[in-house]
Structures are given as C-alpha cells and as structure tokens.
C-alpha cells in the first residue's frame, strides 16, 4: 500500500525459502499423492488484487485477472496491485519484454458501471464489470501505472435476471 515494492521482495524471498524447506514434504516425503502445497496466496493478492483460487476456498475474491497476447506470457509483465476495492483499483506494472505487450484485463469482484481508467497520462471512460475485458498495452521496458475509479454505478448484479435454464424452459419438437 505504501508503493514500496521492497516489501514484496522480502515476502517472496520468505516464501521461496519456506517452499525450499518443505520441498521434501511436498515431493518424496508427502503423505498425499494428489497435491503439492506451495503458498501462492500473496502472489495472487499482489497480481490479481485478491485471492482468485486457493484450496478449500469456496468463492474467489480477486478484482482482476490477466490474459496476455502471444508471444507474451504471464511472465512478460510484473504486476503489483496496491489497491483493490469494488470501486477503486490501482496498479503498477513493468513490461520485461523488448516489445509492447498486449493484455486483456478482466474485472471480477468489482461493482458494475462506468469507470474512469487512467493509464499513465491518458484517461478514458469504460464500461467495466465482472467478466468484462479491457485491452491494455504495456510499452517495452517501461513502468505503467493504471488507476480505475467507479464513476457511475450500473445495474447491481443481484438485480439482474438469472440466466439459468431449466429443463422445463426448453421444448423440443420434431
């Protein structure tokens, strides 16, 4: 939250050390054959603005997800989300590649509506909500800051029609 990324450096170094100490338990010495536990909650929180998927968690809590356009990958851009609320998101990113990286940033645990998106010095208004993609381009070897603010609330998710289909909703003839 301070913007000082050295805290993440220390956190990740500690997680790497803990994973190395538990390597035997997670491989040859494991009581279970169906899983390996490497703590990644803090990595998700930093890159996605919350935890998207973790064992025994029933509901995701992240505000963003990313899809990077090939040849780029999830290792092409370093992302740190410093603020993640349903109406305000701030992040800083650095493109590690020598070429621009295009990505789709998808909203998740956010309020629907019109959002103001400031990327570096440019500002635009976008429709943003759960499951909606916004295209973002990261310049090569450059730090990018993005801030999103909910300007006008849209129709709340709970007020929308349920799109579930029941067998009684379908009639087959012929």
Walk me through the topology.
Elements: H1 6-21, H2 23-26, H3 41-48, E1 64-68, E2 77-85, E3 88-95, E4 101-107, E5 113-119, E6 122-128, E7 133-138, E8 143-153
Antiparallel strand pairs: 1-4, 2-3, 3-8, 4-7, 5-6, 5-8
What does this structure look like?
By secondary structure, the protein is of the alpha+beta class. It has a domain at 40-156: Golgi alpha-mannosidase II (Immunoglobulin-like, Sandwich). The protein is 16% helix and 34% strand. The protein is built from three helices and eight strands, in the order αααββββββββ. It has helices at 6-21, 23-26, 41-48; strands at 64-68, 77-85, 88-95, 101-107, 113-119, 122-128, 133-138, 143-153. The strands form two sheets. It has a five-stranded antiparallel sheet with strand order 2-3-8-5-6. The protein has a three-stranded antiparallel sheet with strand order 1-4-7, with no helix packed on it. Strand 5 and strand 6 (122-128) form a beta hairpin. The model has no long low-confidence stretch (mean pLDDT 88).
Largest sheet: 5 strands, antiparallel
**What would CATH call the architecture of the domain at 40-156?**
Sandwich
**Shape estimate:** globular
What's the count of strands? 8
> What is the overall pLDDT average?
88
Question: What CATH first level of the domain at 40-156 would be assigned?
Answer: Mainly Beta
Into which percent range does the helicity of residues fall? 10-25%
Oligomer: single chain
The CATH homologous superfamily name of the domain at 40-156 equals Golgi alpha-mannosidase II
What is the SS-derived class?
A: alpha+beta
Low-confidence stretches: none
**Strand portion, in percent?**
25-35%
Written as H for each helix and E for each strand, in order along the chain, the element string is: HHHEEEEEEEE
Task: Predict the CATH topology of the domain at 40-156.
Answer: Immunoglobulin-like
Q: Evaluate the radius of gyration.
A: 20 Å
Helix count equals: 3
Strand order of the largest sheet: 2-3-8-5-6
Question: What is the rounded distance between the termini?
Answer: 62 Å
């Amino acid at each position: 939250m301070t913007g000082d990324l050295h805290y993440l450096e220390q956190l990740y170094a500690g997680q790497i050390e803990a994973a190395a100490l538990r390597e035997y338990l997670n491989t040859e010495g494991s009581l279970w054959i169906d899983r390996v536990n490497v703590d990644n909650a803090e990595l998700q929180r930093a890159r996605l603005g919350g935890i998207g998927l973790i064992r025994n968690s029933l509901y995701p809590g992240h505000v963003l997800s990313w899809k990077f356009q090939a040849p780029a990958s999830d290792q092409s851009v370093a992302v740190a989300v410093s603020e993640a609320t349903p109406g305000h998101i701030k992040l800083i990113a650095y493109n590690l590649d020598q070429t621009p990286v295009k990505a789709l940033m998808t909203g998740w645990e956010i309020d629907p509506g019109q959002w103001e998106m400031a990327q570096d010095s440019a500002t635009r208004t976008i429709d943003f909500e759960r499951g909606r993609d916004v295209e973002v381009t990261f310049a090569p070897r450059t730090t990018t800051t993005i801030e999103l603010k909910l300007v006008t609330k849209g129709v709340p998710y709970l007020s929308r029609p349920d799109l579930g289909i029941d067998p009684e909703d379908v009639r087959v003839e012929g």
